[in-house]
Design a protein that fits this description.
By secondary structure, the protein is an alpha+beta fold. The chain folds into 2 domains: 179 residues, DNA ligase/mRNA capping enzyme (D-amino Acid Aminotransferase, Chain A, domain 1, 2-Layer Sandwich); 98 residues, Nucleic acid-binding proteins (OB fold (Dihydrolipoamide Acetyltransferase, E2P), Beta Barrel), CATH 2.40.50. 17% of the residues lie in helices and 37% in strands. It contains 5 helices and 17 strands. The strands form 3 sheets. Strands 3, 4, 5, 6, 7 and 8 form a 6-stranded mixed sheet that branches. Strand 6 and strand 7 form a beta hairpin. The radius of gyration is 23 Å and the shape is elongated.
Amino acid sequence: MRNAQPRLKFIKPQEPILVLEPPVSDDWLHEIKFDGFRTQLIRDWAGVRALTRTGIDWSKRYWPVVDAGEKLPAKSFSIDGEMIAPEPDGRPNFHQMHSRMAWNAELLAFVTFDILHLDGRDLRGLPAIERKAILWDLVKPADGIIQYSPHVEGNGAEFFAAVDKMGLEGIVSKRRNSPYRAGKTDSWVKVKCWDVADFDLIGVKRERGKQTEGLFAKDGKYVGRAVIATSRAIKERLWQRIERDRAEQPAGIPKAVIDTDVEWVKPGIRARVKTLRGEPKLRHASVQGLVED
């Protein structure tokens, strides 16, 4: 006979907004930002299932985590977290996610950071600090395939500096007394660390009244734009190279990027670019200087 009780529904996750510096007041919790796939683990009368950030059922891909969820001491729950591919030292390796989902799902880990429902009780209206305490009681000792994301209270700048030094992607800060609200809200913010790397300059976009931008590629693939905010001497040297090495538009440039205002240049000009860590394309990027041949 089919259970008459409705199944727990997927809840659109709460999303942090991007800011450039962590909050300074003491009414914020700070957690490591894990680089993986946002996942909602749900248990109800029909069992455990794992859903993506958009509600797609990936239970078969995450079967070891689903099995572990069956062993948690609760009849029903909705847990929010990040599915990661941890290295032996615990650092997430995003590039291993697809391989492990296909061949070694037992090497995945589900890092939990919030709980929305527990045994028929909707917890979303509770303060974040209380929800985390309830979550800890459910998933402790948090040393298996289902883990708990620890946090610090206050000292956001120090915590961010430590995360940056460890080479991690960034942090997520949450108001300690905030409820859980679907979508982007200013009670959750993320601060990402920066990377500096060398890229190939393939073009320059100059518009009157706007910042000059360079268009860049890595290993022959377009990766985005970066503001050229270097010293006047470096800019003048760059303009000389551009005037000398003008070229036709290279192949493989996305249509959205193609612009008559772009001056394309021959290969050979490399620049050092500062950009947000862990992004597939350059983001909030700026040129730090030229890399001499």
